[in-house]
Amino acid sequence: QAQLMESGGGSVQTGGSLRLSCVASGFANNRYCMAWFRESTEIIHIGSDGSTFYTDSVKGRFTASRDNAENTLYLQMNSLKPEDTAMYYCAAARTNDCNSYEYWGRGTQVTVSS
Question: Pick from 95, 96, 50: which is nearest to 73 by CA?
Fold first, then answer.
């Protein structure tokens, strides 16, 4: 059974950094799209070929990377702002189609204080 597990959330002050991780298990291969959601909003996705999408609010501050050998998706968050405070969820699609996600982690909380 395919599963996703996030980790790395926490509390930081404005301007601080956090690194989120999402470990995928139970997938038959690595040929699927993965994404990070902030609450219900997709902020980043990264395809199996490494192609990426970043929403405007995180461009230049957040970086996603993917280690297919470790089945892990990362989110490096720098220059954090109070408005970044939210639950962050990892998602994965069945295929490399980044328009629909069938698998979700339970989320990890990020809190940024001013």
Answer: 50
